[in-house]
Design goal:
The protein is α+β, with helices and mostly antiparallel strands. It is built from three helices and eleven strands. A six-stranded antiparallel beta sheet has the order 7-6-5-2-1-9, with no helix packed on it.
Length: about 200
């Protein structure tokens, strides 16, 4: 009887350890294609660039989902922009994550939204830019704690041409960012709450 109790005790401890180690290994993000009707509704808002994603999975204990805007000039890191964190939910079931940008002559009005709300930021756009394009994640990706995943971007060029490069590996900065004059990149990352710089 003592052996059976000891076995059950060890089984419960091992199961708990395995669950703790599992953490966020199943948190996924994938792009969502809008229907024609949804595209019309979005275009009626005046927002030029939008990307929508679906999240599934669970964060581990003490973890948070961090969404960040980062800026690049001439292919080099310029500065980190706004950051959204403090997830009220730790389990995602077809939850939405979005990136949107409304551009005027001088500013980019940036928005990122999830099930917890909508965050916004503004970025000054260099004057000499002409052509621009945007892109994003094209297939499902599993997030790994401590590994930034680039999910959407907007790039602009002062020339009369612009690269149409895709995302490639979402854990690596897209090549198109390094090739153009100015870029805004949205990334997501799972981090321990204690490691998030406010």
């Amino acid at each position: 009887m003592k052996r059976m109790i000891l076995f059950l005790f060890l089984f419960v401890i091992l199961a708990a350890c395995a669950e703790e180690e599992k953490g966020n290994e199943d948190v996924t993000i994938k792009p969502i294609e809008l229907t024609d009707r949804e595209k019309k509704l979005v275009s009626a808002t005046g927002i030029s660039y939008t990307k929508y994603f679906e999240m599934n999975g669970s964060l581990g204990e003490g973890e948070d989902l961090v969404t960040t805007f980062t800026y690049y000039k001439d292919g080099e890191f310029l500065k980190g922009g706004s950051k959204m964190f403090g997830a009220l939910k730790t389990t995602y079931e077809d939850d939405l994550l979005s990136f949107a940008m409304l551009k005027d002559e001088e500013l980019a009005h940036l928005y990122m939204g999830d099930g917890n709300g909508l965050g916004g930021s503004k970025a000054t756009i260099p004057e000499d830019l002409g052509m621009s394009t945007y892109g994003g994640l094209s297939e499902k990706h599993t997030l790994v704690k401590g590994e930034e995943a680039y999910v959407a971007y907007w790039v602009a060029s002062g020339d009369n041409s612009i690269s149409s490069g895709g995302m490639g590996d979402p854990t690596k900065l897209p090549e198109v960012i390094k090739e153009e004059d100015f870029a805004i990149v949205m990334s997501v990352e799972i981090k321990d709450k204690e490691d998030i710089n406010h």
